[in-house]
């Protein structure tokens, strides 16, 4: 693997901490850490950047899931239903990632993000009131989002938060730990495929995982203090940021 200087380590560790904080609040930390890895380590293969990011993301998201679940436990049996589906779907997504065209995926995700933004912005009560209970639809959506995470990835935590808030009878705050539990599973499912392929830079990934955990713990505290209002604002901000980033990648 590549040699890194002290300045490069410092930048990557700081970036991993910020990514963990963002991931714990709304998801999307990969939008920071993956480009940072590729910028600081120009010779790093994209697959290795994705895999190393998954190491950091798995540990950070898992730590946020544990903290949030202690304060806001998911419904009984939730993990048994959703985690296996997320693991398998994310692994499948990682396997087919190389056959998917990102030039096709990005415009579709941008359109989906804009639809989400319009719905959330036009409905002030979205995420603050208990939604409908449609557990089967929630499970199908979780499988689809997990597949997306393995194949493409940006904003997975946000999409899970929306799905569970809309179809599991939860406000945004109570949907947050559910989203983190499933997001940790999607990270692990995709990571297993990357490990088998030999793409993980372990020495870097584990150091970044520690930084990511620190950021995730701070992010989980931020969520618990800020509640539904914070999550709603963070969701709208992430929709705008993701749309701009993906548009620049596609047409910039």
Task: Describe the secondary-structure layout.
Blueprint: H1 6-25, H2 30-40, H3 46-71, H4 78-96, H5 102-122, H6 135-151, H7 156-167, H8 172-196, H9 202-251
Bin the helical content: over 70%
Number of domains: 1
Major beta sheet summary: none
Q: What is the string of helix and strand elements? A: HHHHHHHHH
Beta strand count: 0
Mean model confidence by pLDDT = 90
Tertiary shape: globular
Task: Give the terminus-to-terminus CA distance.
Answer: 31 Å
Q: Which strand-content bin applies to the residues?
A: under 5%
Whole-number radius of gyration? Answer: 17 Å
Give your account of this protein's structure.
With about 250 residues, the protein is mainly alpha-helical. It has one domain. Helix content is about 80%, strand content about 0%. The protein contains nine helices and no strands. Helix 4 crosses helix 8, helix 5 crosses helix 9 and helix 6 packs antiparallel against helix 7. The longest helix is centred in the C-terminal third of the chain and has 50 residues. The radius of gyration is 17 Å and the shape is globular. The model has no long low-confidence stretch (mean pLDDT about 90). It is found in: Cell membrane.
